[in-house]
Protein: ATP-dependent 6-phosphofructokinase
Amino acid sequence: MKKIAVITSGGDCPGMNAAIRAVVRVAMANQIEVWGIKNGYAGMIANDMTQLDSRSVGDIIHKGGTFLGTARSEEFKTLTGRQKAVANLQAHGIEGLVVIGGDGSLTGAKLLAELGIKFVGLPGTIDNDIWGTDYTIGFDTAVNTALDAINKLRDTASAHGRVMLVEVMGRACGWIALTAGLAGGAEIILIPEQPFSSENICRQLLESRAKGKQYSIVVVAEGAGSAIDLGKVISAKTGLETRVSVLGHIQRGGAPTVSDRLLASRLAERAVRDLLQGKSDIMIGYRNNQCVEVPITDAISKKKDIDPELYRLSDVLSQ
Ligand code: ADP
Structure:
C-alpha cells in the first residue's frame, strides 16, 4: 500500500486531532503518502481531499474538534453515493482508509470496504458506547468537562441547600453519567440502562435530608429522561428547592485530556501499521492497556453495557 487517507466522521470528539496527527506522522515515517478527507463522507463524495504531511498536522494535538471537519451525509447511505466516494478515492490512488468516528461512521466504512476500499476504524465518540474497547477517544475529556461542571454546581447547591440536577450527554448509554456522577459524588445517577420512578427519587431525596444531608446532586443521562421535567416533579412533590443544569454540547469540546491524547495516538499508530499489513474490516480498540483488533461486525453490532460494578459502587458511596 502506497497511499492512504484519514477521515473523521459523525459527531466530533476531543482527541480526533491527536488521532489524525498520529496517522499522518506514522504514515510519513513509513514513506506512505497520506491524504485528509474534509467533512466526513460528504467530503469523500464531493472529492474534497488534500494531501497532508507532518507539518500540516502541527499545532493540533491540543485542540478539540477536528481540523479536517466532520459531517453527516445522507447521500453516503445510498449505494450510488458510496460508489461516487469510491471512484474519487480510486482516482487519487488511495488504497486504504483510517476512519475515526462512532458506530455510524464505522458502519459506513464497512459498506465502503464491500466496494474494494480497505479500512481500519478508530472509536471516536464521547459516549464510550462502542463494543470492543474499554474507552473511546473523547470520553475521558467529556467526563472531565462534566465533572468540572458538577464540582461547580456542588458549590452553589451546598450554599443554598438545593437539589441540583445535572443533565449530561448519553442518549442510549449511561457511561458519561455514571462515571462523572461517581467521580463527582452524586447522590443519585439516572441512566437509560436502569429504569427508575420519580416517586422513588423523591422519596430518596427526602430520606437523605432526614439523614442529615444538606443538599443533593442528581446526575441524569439525557436518555434517562429530561432533567428539566424531573426537576419540576421533584420540586412539586418534595418542596425542596431544585435547580437544573443541562450541560449540552459543552461536553463535546475542549482540549483533550492526557488520556485521550495518548489513546488517540496509540490507536492511530496501530491502525496505520495494520492497514499497511493489508488488514481491513477491523477497529482498533484498547483493552487492558493494550491495543487490540476488533472485527468490525462485532464493534458495530454488539452492545457495550455499562460496568455493573461501577453502578453498584456509585450506589454504595452515595449513602
Ligand atoms: P457517528 O459515527 O458519530 O455514530 P452517525 O451515526 O451520524 O455518527 O454516522 C456518520 C455518518 O456515517 C452518516 O452521516 C453516514 O454518512 C454514515 N453512516 C451511518 N450509518 C450508515 C449506514 N447504515 N450506512 C451507510 N452509511 C452510514
In short: The two ends are 57 Å apart (CA to CA).
